């Protein structure tokens, strides 16, 4: 499933409920949503560790996969807003190419709102490895 709304996800209306619900729906999730779910789990775990160990705890998530561009359209923006209210950080600002150069691994989920072919070609120019996932959804050719 690509276009999920918080009310589509079973469980409590909390960050933990959101993650548990996404885990319950795991087999029905698209690869992109699975990566976003891992990112949510990682953020919660790191926040718990930081709270337990205080300021001396410094770590970076092993995965940071989110939807980009908060302002795509009214329906999607409303969806993101509802996830954010529940503590589900599922969206981030678009990353500039200068920022992307510092990462070893890059992901690209084809189809269903994924990167255009021009975007894939641009990512291939970045240092590191591009993990490109093809789905049964359509890619955009423009």
Task: Draw up the topology in text.
Layout lengths: L14 H10 L6 H23 L13 E2 L5 H12 L5 E2 L4 H4 L4 E5 L7 H8 L4 E5 L9
Parallel strand pairs: 1-2, 3-4
Structural notes for this entry:
It is a single chain. The protein has 142 residues and is mainly alpha-helical. It is 40% helix and 10% strand. The protein has five helices and four strands; from the N terminus they run ααβαβαβαβ. It has helices at residues 15-24, 31-53, 74-85, 97-100, 117-124, and strands spanning 67-68, 91-92, 105-109, 129-133. The strands form two sheets. It has a two-stranded parallel ribbon with strand order 1-2. β3, α5 (117-124) and β4 form a beta-alpha-beta unit. The two termini are 24 Å apart. The model has no long low-confidence stretch (mean pLDDT 77).
Index terms:
142 residues; mainly alpha; two-stranded parallel sheet; two-stranded parallel ribbon; 5 helices; 4 strands; 40% helix; globular
Structural Rg? 16 Å
Question: Largest sheet, order of strands side by side?
Answer: 1-2
| Strand percentage | 5-15%
Report the order of strands and helices: HHEHEHEHE
Helical fraction equals 40-55%
- The global form is globular
Overall structural class, as computed from helix and strand content, comes to mainly alpha
Number of strands: 4
Largest sheet: 2 strands, parallel
Average pLDDT reading:
77
What's the helix count?
5
Low-confidence stretches: none
Through-space gap between termini: 24 Å
Tell me briefly what this model is.
The chain is mostly helical and 142 residues long. 40% of the residues lie in helices and 10% in strands.
């Amino acid at each position: 499933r690509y276009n999920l709304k918080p009310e589509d996800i079973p469980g409590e209306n909390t960050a933990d409920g959101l993650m548990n619900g996404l885990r319950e729906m795991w087999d029905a999730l698209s690869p992109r949503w699975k990566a976003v779910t891992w990112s949510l789990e990682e953020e919660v775990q790191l926040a718990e560790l930081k709270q337990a160990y205080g300021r001396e705890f410094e770590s970076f998530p092993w995965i940071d996969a989110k939807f980009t561009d908060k302002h795509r359209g009214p329906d999607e923006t409303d969806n993101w807003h509802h996830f954010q209210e529940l503590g589900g950080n599922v969206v981030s600002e678009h990353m500039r190419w200068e920022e992307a150069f510092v990462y070893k691994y890059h992901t690209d989920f084809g189809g269903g709102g994924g990167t255009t072919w021009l975007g894939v070609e641009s990512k291939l120019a970045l240092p590191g490895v591009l993990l490109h996932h093809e789905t049964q959804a359509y890619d955009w050719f423009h």
